[in-house]
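Summarise what follows for lecture notes:
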Amino acid sequence: MPLLSNLPALRLTLAYALHEPSSLLPHRTIATLLALPLPVGIVLPSLPGSEKKPTIKALVLDKDNTICPPETAVIHPAYRQKIEQIKSSPEFAGRPHSILIVSNTAGSTRSAEHEAEAKHLEAELGLPVLRQQPGRKKPLCGPDVLLYFREHGITENPAEIAFVGDRLATDVLVAREVGSWSIWCRDGWRDPVKPATDYRGLFAKAEGILERILRERLSRSAPLPVTPRHR
């Protein structure tokens, strides 16, 4: 989704870029969703003052350019298999509401197209899709995500949630906003048979450049999750 179609996200991203750029960095970078390590918690940074890894009880997955090619709801067999592996991981197995798809297309508005995409994904993957409140697309939908997991008895602790997606300005930033962990799919969605085909748009590629500058040239790293009331 072009960032200019989500002006609140653009304003929030610019504010962080100017005043707290490290918040745009992910806690973990992977090439694509297919490379997501399981269990998720063991690959995240250790908690302050100990070698203990975070406990992850809930996972948020992006759709466009993470689960599917951009602006489609087509599920490649390799990605379907990966989703099944995630669902059967000890962190999430037996808890059908512990994995939530949060998209700025599917389920993000009340349009027939977005609702049809959401229902298709739910039927194809057996995972719920968040129906976002009007004007609350990522990175502003964090409270709705927290409410979903709380109401379904998964967790009330944002630091037990990991967000996975291809965009710093939405997927990583919403995790920062609510005090959760972020995992960035650096290359977006790639066809395992034709991995050289790049589906990232202009803004996503610009984010990749920004990430490298912050991490490699400025030696910045992502701040650990902090709940909003403690910031």
About this structure: The chain has a mean pLDDT of 92. The domain at 22-191 is CATH 3.40.50.1000 (Rossmann fold). Helices lie at 7-19, 77-88, 112-125, 142-151, 168-178, 202-217. The chain has one domain: 22-191.
